[in-house]
Design goal:
By secondary structure, the protein is mainly α. 85% of the residues lie in helices and 0% in strands. The chain starts with a helix and ends with a helix.
Length: 257
């Protein structure tokens, strides 16, 4: 019985631990997916910056500045969210990445300002186009490494989640079964104790816990007063009958004389 109770407690604790681990892995997987989405948003904002800047310096059309301004406005806030999401992953090397991003934005702003000031062929913005392209290539390589890292984390956590779900399913089956087994074992012990109490061969002094079940000896003790009273009444009746017989025989003796 004690072994079964210990087994039930161990299964309950293991099931609780599995659920907590499942929750932790699910939360970590969600954070990895959120980081992947934020990285894609930062990269999209950078593409808007590059596209707007390149379109403006090549054509001089102010309409190309709309995506540039939109990208620069959303870039800071989105990258801050990405930094918070990946704060526990130093391998992402976000500070170096932000240095490259900031450099790319500065180059884009300088190119736009020079395009407004110099439209001729030898203007400074044409000399900086290659530098901007190289910087953007380095940024893409950094983001590719971050995305690869996050996707690997998601795949690993997917495998962990599958294993935890299988283990939780096993515990969900074993825990109720062990509970039912404990209930049946307790019921069997109570029935055995009841039969032991009802057995006439069992002395009354061996009864250990009379408050658990009403024993047969208790019921017999309750019925003793009624049997004693019935025996006493029978003896009294028999005594009275003998007394009447003796009286009647005593009174008839003189007559026979």
């Amino acid at each position: 019985m004690l072994f079964g109770l210990a087994l039930f407690v161990a299964l309950a604790w293991s099931s609780h631990a599995s659920l907590r681990e499942l929750e932790a892995v699910t939360d970590a997987r969600s954070r990895s997916r959120s980081g992947l989405l934020l990285a894609a948003e930062v990269m999209s904002a950078l593409k808007d910056v590059e596209t707007g800047q390149r379109g403006y310096v090549l054509t001089g059309d102010e309409h190309y500045l709309v995506p540039f301004e939109t990208g620069t406005r959303s870039l800071d806030e989105t990258f801050k969210a990405l930094r918070r999401m990946l704060a526990d992953r130093p391998q992402a090397n976000l500070e170096t990445l932000w240095t490259l991003i900031d450099r790319r934005v500065v180059l884009a702003e300088s190119n736009i300002a020079d395009r407004r000031a110099y439209a001729e062929e030898g203007s400074p913005w044409r000399q900086r186009l290659d530098e901007g392209r190289d910087t953007m290539d380095r940024i893409r390589a950094r983001f590719a490494a971050i995305e690869s890292m996050l996707r690997a984390e998601i795949e690993a956590r997917d495998r962990s989640l599958e294993a935890l779900r299988v283990r939780a399913s096993i515990f969900n089956v074993l825990l109720p079964m062990s509970g039912v087994a404990l209930i049946l074992a307790a019921w069997s012990l109570l029935q055995r104790e009841r039969r032991r109490r009802c057995s006439p061969r069992t002395p009354a002094w061996r009864t250990r816990s009379p408050s658990v079940l009403p024993s047969c000896s208790t019921r017999s003790a309750r019925s003793r007063p009624s049997r004693t009273a019935w025996t006493a009444a029978s003896r009294t009746s028999a005594g009275g009958s003998r007394a009447r017989c003796m009286t009647s025989s005593g009174s008839s003796s003189p007559r026979s004389r």
